[in-house]
């Protein structure tokens, strides 16, 4: 009886071991199938780095992308030739424009043309024009002056010349203490080209004086119904000279102070 019990127990143990082995093999086969399935679901050759790159590039503008593409394709940084040429042209054009404006004070023909266009203002058609108080010309092509009103002699208007044309009138406020009549001079008695002669004479004298600079502003002031041109002095680093002019812009007096 005891012998039969031992045999029976041995058979049960063998069956249990066999079941465990089958269970283990079944688990391994199942795990392998799931692993293979995951591999099949992942696209071949795709990595997280590429995905990140795509996301970054999607936020870049079209211009930046095209520039980056050209750089990567050629293997060298993009050339700045086109932009450089535009900058050079712009700088050159600006220099020429500045030089042209700076020459305005010595341009007798340009100053005469400005005066002719002023005399042709429709408001003064058939009427005598009078300059009031002063006139100012600048190297950048501007002229500022004041004229007696065409209809009311007690009024004065300001006019401005810039970019080849006159703008105005702008009313000027006067005081009862202003000696208006004494500050008036017929516009026909003034030659705008005189300002160019004043500038040229000052420039020539300045060239002989150490440290002296040519002016960027020529102006005239009406005193006792006659025009006096300025600047009236030239300052150098070591010397100072007084200068005065005739109505036509020629030098009247020049001496060291």
TrEMBL record:
Keywords noted in UniProt: Signal
Superkingdom: Bacteria
Signal recorded as keyword: yes
Region feature (Disordered): 33-53, 68-95
Biased amino acid composition, Basic and acidic residues: 33-42
Signal sequence range: 1-19
Protein name: Beta-lactamase-inhibitor-like, PepSY-like
Comp. bias intervals (Low complexity): 43-53, 72-95
């Amino acid at each position: 009886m005891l012998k039969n019990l031992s045999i029976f127990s041995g058979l049960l143990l063998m069956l249990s071991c066999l079941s465990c082995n089958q269970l283990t093999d079944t688990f391994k086969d199942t795990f392998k199938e799931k692993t293979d399935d995951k591999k099949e679901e992942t696209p071949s050759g795709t990595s997280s780095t590429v995905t990140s790159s795509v996301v970054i590039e999607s936020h870049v503008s079209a211009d930046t992308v095209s520039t980056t593409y050209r750089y990567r394709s050629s293997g060298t940084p993009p050339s700045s030739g086109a932009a450089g040429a535009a900058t050079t042209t712009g700088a050159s054009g600006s220099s020429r424009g500045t030089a042209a404006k700076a020459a305005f004070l010595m341009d007798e023909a340009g100053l005469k043309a400005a005066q002719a266009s002023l005399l042709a203002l429709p408001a003064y058609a058939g009427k005598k024009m009078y300059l009031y108080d002063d006139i100012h010309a600048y190297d950048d092509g501007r002229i500022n002056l004041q004229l007696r009103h065409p209809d009311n002699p007690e009024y004065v208007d300001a006019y401005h010349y810039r970019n080849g044309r006159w703008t105005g009138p702008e009313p000027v406020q006067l005081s009862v203490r202003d000696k208006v009549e004494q500050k008036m001079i017929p516009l026909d008695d003034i030659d705008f080209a005189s300002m160019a002669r004043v500038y040229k004479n000052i420039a020539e004298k300045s060239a002989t004086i150490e440290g002296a600079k040519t002016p960027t502003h020529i102006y005239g002031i009406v005193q006792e119904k006659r025009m006096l041109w300025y600047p009236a002095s030239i300052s150098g680093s070591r010397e100072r000279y007084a200068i005065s002019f005739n109505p036509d812009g020629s030098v009247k007096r020049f001496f060291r102070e």
